[in-house]
Amino acid sequence: MGESLLTQPFVRRNGELHCGDIPAAELAERFGTPLYVYDIRRIAERVGAFHTAFAGVDHLLAYSVKANGNLSILRRLHAMGCGADITSLGELYRARQAGIPGRMIVFAGVGKTVPEIEAALEYGIYAFNVESRGELERIDEVATRLGRRAPFAIRVNPDVFAATPHEYTRTGTASTKFGVPWDETGDLYLWAKDRPWLVAAGIDMHIGSQIVDATPYVRALECVLDLVTELSAAGVDLKFLNIGGGYGIRYDHDPGMDVDELAAELVPRVKSAGLRLILEPGRSIVGDAGVLLTRVEYVKRSGRKHFVVVDGGMSELIRPSHYGGFHAVAHTMPSQGATTRVDIVGPICETGDFLARDRELPLPEQGDLLAVCTVGAYGFAMASNYNGRLRPAETMVDGNEATLIRQRETLPDLVRGEE
Ligand SMILES: Cc1ncc(COP(=O)(O)O)c(C=O)c1O
User: Fold this and answer.
1) Which residue from 11, 38, 88, 297 puts its CA 20 to 30 A from 187's CA?
2) From the CB of 151, is ligand 1 less than 6 Å away?
3) Is the predicted pLDDT of residue 413 greater than 90, yes or no?
């Protein structure tokens, strides 16, 4: 299990798994394990696919920094024409460090603080994605005090159900904390009309993550476009529509979102409304460009099960235990043994610490190197120091060149700032 899910650019040559043109084993030897490896050429391919698909409308790819905020990746994405979707002061800092200008940044998130709003206004971001009346009032206060105009888009909760693999990744229904209820949005824009420092620039939505079908986007878009027309009649002329992110990729055997198909539905509608289109893809840009290399520490048997204990666990990759996320796991070297059913588990003291369960694999041996696939998004970004773990190194591969883009943490990193 896992073999058939290996995606470009992770391919086998003479049976050996390669990242770009470099054997995975060589990377593990050079940088240690557990190790995140990202293929920048795959990332560039994905960005290119979005730019091409949406070429028919004025658009901004505001890459969702939360998916993978490594500075080297952000810099490269910016060079490919991407802006940023940020959710915190920390992500604003990352985007700035990567050289992404304010005019290419949108700021999402339900809990923006005064210092975050101040920093975003000072940097001149493109727009706040506003999640509540209280937030818009706060932005107004800060903008008035600083004498800076605050462009904003209200994040409408379209109350559209989109099938996602886990309820935690659904955001577009009224039962989630996200967005402004549908029937309150118009009033909020009208309220803002009289506030001299607020600029109603656009309208925003984000209906969930890992969505593989264009239909819920189209349904939500049509509702939002009706609202745009109503607002225009009331004298609020919006310039852009932010459709959010959430485009699914292939983790398992399910196909990911077909970006061309999605664009074929969205582009004509947005274009005929005379709006600029903002997209906030995260996972669909970096997700399948990453693998986690992890080494087998022990193989043990308990009852009828084999447990393969590896040196990376939920502290490196929490998606399996947090959302039930599926990641294919593959041997990096040719492995001829008979397959057996195994759980790949980490070293952490939690029953929920697993990377994969009930997988058919040739039984790994101590010292084997395994690749956990499709971890470029929400992998390192969600890594933690739980159980006193040092967060792993990250590397970027470009053909036959590999660069360390984040050092492995050290023991002093673990206690920095503590008394
Ligand atoms: C508002 C918003 N935009 C964009 C994204 C990116 O989603 P994805 O990485 O699934 O494209 C998220 C993810 O949580 C989000 O909450």
Assistant:
1) 88
2) no
3) yes
The b-or-e profile of 203-229 (16+ CB within 10 A means b, else e) is bbbbbbbbbbebebbebbbebbbebbe
Ligand 1 midpoint to CA 295 (Å)? 31
Q: Is residue 349 annotated as part of the catalytic site, yes or no? A: yes
Instruction: Indicate whether 1 pLDDT > 50.
Output: no
Same domain for 245 and 356, yes or no, is no
Sign, CA torsion 110/114/119/124: positive
CA of 162 to the centre of ligand 1 (A): 14
Assess whether pLDDT exceeds 80 at residue 128: yes
Q: Are residues 292 and 276 in the same domain?
A: no
**What's the predicted TM-score (pTM) here?**
0.95
Among 281, 307, 336, residue at a domain's last position:
281
Chain centroid, CA 410 distance in Å: 26
> Domain range spanning residue 351?
3-39+287-415
DSSP 103: G
Give the confidence band of 169 by pLDDT, cuts at 50, 70, 90: low
